[in-house]
Amino acid sequence: MKFYVLVVLTMMLDSTTQAQSFDENTTQTLKNYVNEFPNQTQFSVAIIDGDQTQFYGQVKFSDTINEFDNSNSVFQIGSVTKVFTSTLLAQLVIEKEVKLTDSVQRYFNFSLNEKGTTLEQLSNHTSGLPRLPSNLNLAALDLKNPYKSYAEADLEYYLKTEMEIPTTEEKTYQYSNIGASILAKALENASGKNYSELLSERIFQPLEMNQSTLNEGEAKNNMVQGIDQNGNPTPVWEMGVFEGAGAILSSTKDLSNFLKAHFKEQENAFSLTLMPTFMVNKNLRLGLGWHILQDETGNDLYWHNGGTGGYSSSVFMVPATQKAVIILTNVSAFHAKASTIDELGFKLLNSISK
Fold this sequence. Notes:
Elements: H1 7-12, H2 22-34, E1 42-49, E2 52-61, E3 64-67, E4 75-76, H3 81-94, H4 119-123, H5 152-162, H6 177-191, H7 195-204, H8 243-246, E5 249-250, H9 252-260, H10 269-274, E6 278-281, E7 284-286, E8 291-294, E9 300-307, E10 312-318, E11 323-329, H11 340-352
């Protein structure tokens, strides 16, 4: 579940591109990027500009890049899942089932080792929790499926015994997979429904995200084969108790419905996630789940990426101008050039912002 340093991406917002045929430019730009990856690599891209959504699909086969419609093809979106988890939090807040300021302890029936953390802090990565729990044995992990063996009992033991928060007077930003996972579990306990049910009832069904699921079996006919950094087939990561941090399977068509829901001028769960909750520095603020930058015209730009052993994704949107870019790939997060997918996203967003 990758998350790259923001410095380079922030600098890219100051770059400029010359106007030219958008479709031709986009197609060629995608080819240039796809060509850097192994055979069997797929890119599925959606570009939203107001009421118009354009889909681009490319696959590299026998060192040749072909175009085709893969807008309904399903990829694992990795850490972009965290935005959905925070949207569920916002939905429960709107419905007055929880409060952002609620202590996490309130939603567990056993005593946590640390009791001051709030739901908002889990959502915006200011809880102080580490990236991964201390009782996840990194040395023994199967890199093809690293979270599969971490069980509910392991999470409960961590929460009861090993969860520690640094004692500092001021909140700081520290990206945390375990924080998002605990948030999802707290929302399950608050609602009495499991994470999959919450996603289906509160987001997938209302937005007609018909390809989106946590279950690989449900997506089997449309599932794109993940490939590792060497171009070999690799499995979809089974996230288990980390599902709230990175388990969702989705398509560019479905994600375009999700992003466009943020463009409506009304007070709802989507607009709540866009509200800044913490300032990291002059270039970066945090919403609920979202990282907030600024585009070259000064509008708020919301971004998140994700990656697993066989997939990488990147999502960008500017609600003020109703522009967005979605990139889903079966590029491994471990590939040496995986970070160029974020670079591509910013380049495409700049292209439609002219």
